[in-house]
């Protein structure tokens, strides 16, 4: 099966081939033909399966005919987070380079200015997060009755983030005669009800979870003493051939504290979580993408769906509370056929969480002991890193930024000896990442195409 078999236009085939893809993924092969036939779709698939192109490609061909009217986007894509919205926009740019289509990105925390003007001229594709879109709609700045195509992406994540009422309301603002595509990694009853209410005779397509299906991620549970997690992490970062690593924590405070601690120990690390504003988050991701830092400490929501190629390792510094998050987290490595390693730190309190994970992935994960701080851990050989965007050679980044810092007397840093640091009281609102609660919605509009 090739992309040419799916009924896409020659311009699109050219853009796809220039993006380096020749064979459609299962979700693309199954979804693209019915979308082109204007059918509603329920796609049970998660990030990493190629699902973004499964709706972006046919949308471009469908939208190639017709023109947008002022204040009336012709299609709407709803994404739960800003990062995912930005990634979809990137996909439109990549695949739409031979089409004259306009898109606007409606997310919080970005300068409004000209972007609002761009929207007022009319856009073919509006990519938005639900809260921001509702806000603007209520201020009368946008009309959705010209929107004949709707994509609800990551519906289960929308549910987790409390966006379902917004989505229901948005659906009622769109014309009844429209095409709707809904994607979700899982189908809890609320999402099923949403689909029953707002989709018409949808075709269901289900593809395997990439993490469970893929054998290219080596997974290990690492037994650690809860007071010695940082020590164990540092020992493993030093012992492994770590090229670039995403470290997940369950709480924003842990993300912040761990990042600070790693930096104090001379590692090149950055952090992303829901309390970091958009421009800082983008800058942080860019530093990670380009290799100025090779360690990214992250919370679940902030890192969900991130598509950064060449991530060699994922560390779950905290075992995730929800088994689905485990699958999402480890899916940041082993992307696009590369090999990856996923380590999950396990303390005495994590037995139930691990049990749930193993049930979900239908697999028992091998357990290893945390290495002693000085002893090298078992090495897992990595494929050389492939450059993701710019065609440059593989990069291997020195994980240490300042060797002199390593020589600091350990006694000066209590946690280096495994002693627990004085605990700060945890603020009541500093729970798991809740996504974005940023300022008023703003526009980022990008014209693309020839
Ligand atoms: P997604 O599931 O949309 O997040 O895509 C996951 C990754 O797969 C992204 O890096 C895409 O660029 C890549 N991808 C999309 N389509 C294909 C394809 N047909 N062949 C290989 N990689 C692809």
TrEMBL record:
Domain Helicase C-terminal: 216-376
Enzyme class: hydrolase
Compositionally biased region (Basic and acidic residues): 378-413
GO annotations of cellular component type: cytosol
Family matches, as InterPro entries: DEAD/DEAH_box_helicase_dom (IPR011545), DEAD/DEAH_RhlB (IPR044742), DEAD_box_RNA_helicase (IPR050079), Helicase_ATP-bd (IPR014001), Helicase_C-like (IPR001650), P-loop_NTPase (IPR027417), RNA-helicase_DEAD-box_CS (IPR000629), RNA_helicase_DEAD_Q_motif (IPR014014)
Renumbered residue ranges of the record's region Disordered: 372-450
Motif extent (Q motif): 1-29
Reaction(s) this enzyme catalyzes, per UniProt: ATP + H2O = ADP + phosphate + H(+)
GO-annotated biological processes: response to temperature stimulus; ribosome assembly
Keywords, alphabetical: ATP-binding, Cytoplasm, Helicase, Hydrolase, Nucleotide-binding
Highest taxon listed in the record's lineage: Bacteria
Family per record: Belongs to the DEAD box helicase family.
The protein, known as: DEAD-box ATP-dependent RNA helicase RhpA
Species: Sphingobium chungbukense
